[in-house]
Amino acid sequence: MVVETTKGVMIMDKKKKEKMKNKLTTTQEVLYGREFRMADRAAGFGHKR
Questions:
Q1: Closest by CA position to 1, among listed 22, 18, 15
Q2: pLDDT, average across residues 19-48
Q3: Highest mean pLDDT: which of 11-15, 16-20, 39-43, 44-48?
Q4: What average pLDDT is seen over the chain?
Q5: How far apart are CA 21 and CA 10, in angstroms?
């Protein structure tokens, strides 16, 4: 449930608020993906042969 106050501030219920805290932005997803791929390659887990 979303309630809009007179000042325009959105107040969300606890479950929805917690769910939104854990989401990454698209930019963060891309950057983390690149970092993990580079780390995997450095550790020798790059391509299966």
A1: 15
A2: 85
A3: 39-43
A4: 76
A5: 15
Distance CA 41, CA 47 (A): 8
Q: What is the pTM of this model?
A: 0.45
Query: Which residues on neighbouring strands pair with residue 2, listed in sequence order?
Result: 12
- Number of C-beta neighbours around residue 12 at 10 A: 13
**Residue position matching structure tokens 């769910």:** 19
Q: Which amino acid is located at 46 in the chain?
A: G
**3-state per-residue secondary structure call for 29-42:** HHHHHHHHHHHHHH
The Cα–Cα gap between 27 and 20 comes to 16
